[in-house]
Structure formats: C-alpha cells, structure tokens
Amino acid sequence: MMEDILRQVQDGTLSIEEAKKQLATYEDLGFAKVDHHRKKRQGFPEVIYGEGKSVEQITSILEAIKSKDNDILITRISQEKADKILKLHPELTYEKIAKILYWKANAAGTTDKAGYIAVLCAGTSDLPVAEEAAITAEVMGSNVRRFYDVGVAGIHRLLDQAKDIQGATVSVVVAGMEGALPSVVGGLVSHPVIAVPTSVGYGANFQGLSALLTMLNSCASGISVVNIDNGFGGAYSAVLIDRLARQK
C-alpha cells in the first residue's frame, strides 16, 4: 500500500497532502487520536470504550474507523447511547446483555476454520461479562461455544459438558462469588484458561476482589487472570491464542 501511494505521488496522480493523509498512522479528531494502523500491528482495529464518552464523541470515532472499512466494536455502551447512535448508523448491531455495539466490514461473520473458544460462566448473574467476552471474540473472527450456568455449586452441570470444553483451543472462564470455576476447569483441560472474575456476590466478595484473589491463587496450572468484569480483555487474549493455534 505504501509503495502504491508513493508511486502515485511520483506519477503526479496523487498530491503530497493527500498522500500524507493516507500514510498517517492516526487521525486527530481533537478530543481523540484514532489509531488507524492498529489492525496492521495487532490484527484488529481500535476498540471504542463507551463509558465516559458522549454520543457525539463515540459517533465521530466510529465514523473515522468505519471510513477505513474496519470493523467497529464499542464496549460498555448503555442502551440509551446505543439507541441514539443506531438512529445515525442503523447498520450497527446492539447486544443489550453485553452492552456492545458492533459492525463487521465483512458480513461473512466468524471464521469457517476449525477450532473454537469456549466461554464459560458460573451463574446467570455472570452473563453480562460472559457475553461481552463471547461477542468480542466473535466480532474478532473466532468461533465461540457457550457453556453457561456451570458453576461449582452444581458441578455435574460442568462435567456433563467436559468433552466439548476440552475440545476448545482456549477457554474464557467467568465467575463471581468465590471464583472457583477456573480452577476446576484448569484441572480438566489441556489448553490455556483465561479467568475473568466478576463483581457478582455478597458483601465479602468485595465487588469481585475475592474472586480475583482466588483465581490469582489457583493451584491449577495454565490459568491467566484479567481484571474484574473485564470480559473484553479475557476475550482479546483468547482470540490471540486461538489465532496462533489455527495457524498450525
């Protein structure tokens, strides 16, 4: 691409100013600098974090990303903000439980290659974080299989799904309360486990701190832990592992 632009400048078919715009690594919107080269460096375009941003700011950023024919992924965005943006961009899709707004430049969807990410959650209350992880992974091009409400309080529910979970390239395991599920899964599978603690639980859960500490102190090998309620972060790591696994 760079060589094509330079040849056009040499041929006189492209001005220097236009070439500078096309070669720029980011677009300065004043309040934000949109990183257009992130997909080349990391394999996926810049993701928009919706909390704390106005509808106008989110819209400007997504339009800049979309102008480069890149996928759009907006996390932690409320229904109210999403509804206003959808009036301007009805081509986007809003997932209410996950609080994600997205658009895929390639409508074909997830990869048709073998392999999938297993996304597990301990209880129904963990669904918002689990769905944030699952939808993030799907938008980023991975196949996903969901295994929900398989917490340790009824471990037979997990064991009934063990074979399918073991077939995944990587698991994202979401749990609140005492956060024990990743340790159990880690003892059943031979692939990496990304543990995601949630803020679900009563007072001594300390808004997810107890689950976080349990996961960090797990005696099961192969477990990595992301921040509390960070379904996006867990999915991003899982997608990178899944991509490497599918390259073999």
Number of helical segments with 4 or more residues? 11
Question: Would you tell me the structural class of the helices and strands?
Answer: alpha/beta
- How far is the N terminus from the C terminus? 28 Å
Report the helical percentage: 25-40%
Low-confidence stretches: none
Strand content: 15-25%
User: How much is the average pLDDT?
Assistant: 88
> What can be said about the biggest beta sheet?
5 strands, parallel
Strand elements, count: 11
Tell me the series of helices and strands, N- to C-terminal. HHEEHEHEHEEEHEHHEHEHEH
Structural Rg: 20 Å
Give an overview of the whole structure.
With 248 residues, the protein is α/β, with parallel strands linked by helices. The chain is built from eleven helices and eleven strands. The chain has helices at 2-11, 16-23, 38-42, 55-66, 79-88, 127-139, 155-159, 162-166, 181-186, 209-216, 231-246; strands at residues 26-28, 33-35, 48-49, 72-75, 93-95, 100-103, 117-121, 144-147, 170-175, 193-197, 223-225. It has a five-stranded parallel beta sheet with strand order 8-7-9-10-11. It has a four-stranded mixed beta sheet with strand order 3-4-6-5, with helices on both faces. The chain has a two-stranded antiparallel ribbon with strand order 1-2. A hairpin with a 4-residue loop joins β5 and β6 (100-103). α1 packs antiparallel against α2 (16-23) and α6 (127-139) packs parallel to α11. The relative contact order is 0.11. The mean pLDDT is 88.
